[in-house]
Amino acid sequence: MLVAVIGGNLQGIEAAYLARKAGWDVLLIDKIADVPASGLCSYFIQMDVTRREELSHTIKSVDLVIPALENYQALYALTQEAHNAGIPIVFDFDAYQISSSKIESNRLFAKVGVPVPKPWPECGFPVVAKPSASSGSEGVRIFSTKEEMDGFEEGDFSPEAWVLQEFVEGPSYSLEILGVDGKFFPLQVTDLDMDMSYDCKRVTAPTELAPDLVETFEKISADTASALNLKGIMDVEVILNNGELKVLEIDARLPSQTPTTVFWSTGLNIVQMLGEIFVSPATLMPKIAYRRGVIYEHINVSPGMIEIAGEHIMTGAGPLHLETDFFGADEAITNYIAGRDHWVATLIVVGQDLSEAWTKRNTTIKTIAKRFRIDRIRELKPDRITEH
Q1: Is there a contact between 5 and 44 (Cβ–Cβ < 8 Å)?
Q2: I need a surface site. Which of 53, 72, 314, 351 has the fewest CB within 10 A?
Q3: What single-letter DSSP state applies at residue 57?
Q4: CATH architecture of the domain formed by 97-101+169-279
């Protein structure tokens, strides 16, 4: 099968990687040359997909379209042209329109009764300001005092563009849920570790969340997906604060990082499952047969130092390629080549359980440090930087 992945950045890496794991050929399309996912695809075309005639000609020979970007104009053009050509597209435009707006998402949460952080001014400080139209940590600001926030409100703030709510601390978790013909299938909860800018630097599985809270998380996700009448995929991110799960955001599109972690832990290929849902809607959802330990982690290597940081470090690294048995890691998505002294990698380390995966991961980091004569290992955390 030939699939067109549209967008070659972080979501494109995920889509291309898992599509190749499914045994599919991948045509990657992006308006920028040398995007990270261009090293993982079968074919690459540099093109602006909002040029509708050119897009229509390019996708007419593919079997499936997978959007891996968040540009509204591009998504609209893709949806229309795929529909016109009769090509299945892995995308729920209606659900995405709500999930891509934090303001609209919060209205949905209130309707469903989903627990969320308290809105300003009902909460105290610290307060977090999130751009309504951005996902993840992009553009997020944190204010510890009213004086700090006053300057923001006088300048950049507008109620139509930002969400202000209490800043809650605690461990973060993610869950993908699939919607098929009005039925909803939660997959595997994964645990998220953040860097100083609250960008995800590491995903681990299986989760350390208590079983009763996993059930609560699955119900929250299913209720939200049902309210959206979701077809396809939605990613739900929560934080555990004072024993209660609070929803931070939803995204009705293919996420990055977590699907690959789920693949290695459970054997479930979310991209392949999505393809089957949209090509053959009667597809039955497989059960999770096993849960291996997985650590999916980003490193930035430079002379004398390994830095463990958020996934943003992968975006400007140029074309990435896949390596196996990478200094002890099962796989790595990286721009490393022999002789390069500054490079990045996403390490994928697998064990029979999470404890074994951590032992293997630590050995991998030590092997890299020894091989490149590195004496500093720095990890970025939300509240501090640690070195050893």
Answers
A1: no
A2: 53
A3: H
A4: 2-Layer Sandwich (3.30)
